[in-house]
Write a structure and sequence with these properties.
Elements: H1 35-43, H2 51-62, E1 68-69, E2 80-82, E3 87-92, H3 111-134, E4 138-143, H4 150-161
Parallel strand pairs: 3-4
Antiparallel strand pairs: 1-2, 2-3
Amino acid sequence: MEKVATRDPYLVDAGRGIPGVSSRAENADMDHLDRKRRSKNMRAIRSKDTKPEFAVRKLIHGMGYRYRLHRKDLPGKPDLVFPSKEKAIFVHGCFWHYHGCKRGRMPKSKLGYWKPKLEGNRERDKNHIKEVKALGWETLVIWECETRDVKFLMQKISAFLDGKQ
């Protein structure tokens, strides 16, 4: 009896021997992951408690400041809130909030999906900041790429929290 190779029906094999990865030549607009793997990947992306946010929280706590997390009564649920100072900090990932750095670039595939999505995220961020400011609060946005330069970040945070902007 001859053994027949079975394949997972959710995976796409482009003949390159890599299960779940399709060839870009097949369709330039096609995702390189199959739907099941893309779904799993997207579910794993967090909206809070991200690595950049943890880095900022650790730094601010080490500087002696105390804060509250994700206040639901403020527009956009800022990542760090300083109620006594009426100041809020948003920690944005460069890709998801479409920053101008190299990590914040527009994807090359599925532009019909990504362009409105990322531009919508950016517009929503602007609206949340306007709404928080309208309540009399000051805001600061810290980008993921800024978390790599700790000295610069400490100066930026100190200036914001101590009112020396």
